[in-house]
């Protein structure tokens, strides 16, 4: 899953980037509203964390511009303003959720997880595909009760394929949702990650398979 942070405070922005990456998300960031709007319109983000008090272009204006377009990204408005009127204004502008500073990282991560699940019509915290179980909050993967130890990138790819279970996921979608500005984005890197995941899953006798759809991408499901 991929998150865009639009926050002008360097300290908070770096803290959020680190916390989200450690939690298994690909992360991009912007320091002002205009750059944030451009990134949101140019990329494909599952969740956008949007400060409402931004330089160059304020967050409410960014929100209104985003909602003029059919973007699937969910938006959490982040602000120090905590009156009912402020919250109503943010939600009316198009925010899916509202978080008042200061906030605990654990609460932010819970809200991000919830919006990611909602975006893929998944209400549960656990995905079970055959004997494969992926627990989102714990970021753990088991096959028939045996622990699988994926790398961070392998977990991110497996989680995204599980969210899209039964659907063909293109390479471009994987690049947008699994890789960020700091990651190398090449088809060889994706193919290598898929190959390692397949080996690890096969070694544990996993019933779920990552199938290559020639010329398109990959699909995760049982018996494919």
Give keywords.
Arc Repressor Mutant, subunit A, 12 strands, alpha/beta, 5-stranded parallel β-sheet, 224 residues, 8 helices, 4-stranded antiparallel β-sheet, 2 domains, Rossmann fold, 42% helix, 24% strand
CATH architecture of the largest domain: 3-Layer(aba) Sandwich
What is the averaged pLDDT score? 89
Secondary structure tally, helices = 8
What's the story with the biggest beta sheet?
Answer: 5 strands, parallel
Structure description:
The chain has helices at 10-22, 33-42, 59-66, 84-93, 105-119, 152-163, 171-178, 187-203; strands spanning 2-6, 26-30, 47-51, 74-79, 97-100, 126-129, 132-135, 140-143, 146-148, 169-170, 208-213, 217-222. By secondary structure, it is of the alpha/beta class. The protein has two domains: 2-119, Response regulator (Rossmann fold, 3-Layer(aba) Sandwich); 126-222, Arc Repressor Mutant, subunit A, CATH 1.10.10.10. A hairpin with a 2-residue loop joins strand 6 (126-129) and strand 7 (132-135). The longest helix is centred in the C-terminal third of the chain and has 17 residues, at 187-203. The mean pLDDT is 89.
């Amino acid at each position: 899953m991929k998150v865009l942070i639009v926050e002008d405070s360097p300290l908070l922005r770096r803290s959020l980037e680190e916390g989200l990456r450690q939690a298994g998300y690909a992360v991009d960031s912007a320091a002002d509203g205009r750059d944030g709007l451009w990134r949101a319109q140019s990329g494909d983000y599952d969740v956008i964390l949007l400060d409402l008090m931004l330089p160059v272009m304020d967050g409410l204006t960014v929100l209104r511009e985003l909602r003029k377009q059919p973007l699937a990204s969910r938006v959490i408005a982040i602000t120090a303003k905590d009156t009912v009127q402020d919250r109503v204004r943010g939600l009316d502008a198009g925010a899916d959720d509202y978080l008042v500073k200061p906030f605990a990282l654990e609460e932010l991560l819970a809200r991000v997880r919830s919006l990611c699940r909602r975006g893929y019509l998944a209400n549960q915290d656990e995905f079970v595909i055959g004997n494969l179980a992926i627990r989102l909050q714990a970021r753990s993967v088991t096959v028939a009760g045996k622990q699988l130890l994926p790398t961070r990138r392998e977990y991110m790819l497996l989680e995204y394929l599980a969210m899209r279970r039964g659907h063909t996921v293109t390479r471009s979608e994987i690049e947008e949702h699994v890789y960020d500005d700091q990651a190398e984005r090449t088809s060889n890197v994706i193919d290598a990650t898929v190959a390692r995941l397949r080996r690890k899953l096969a070694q544990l006798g996993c019933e779920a398979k990552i199938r290559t759809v020639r010329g398109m991408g990959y699909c995760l499901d049982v018996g494919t």
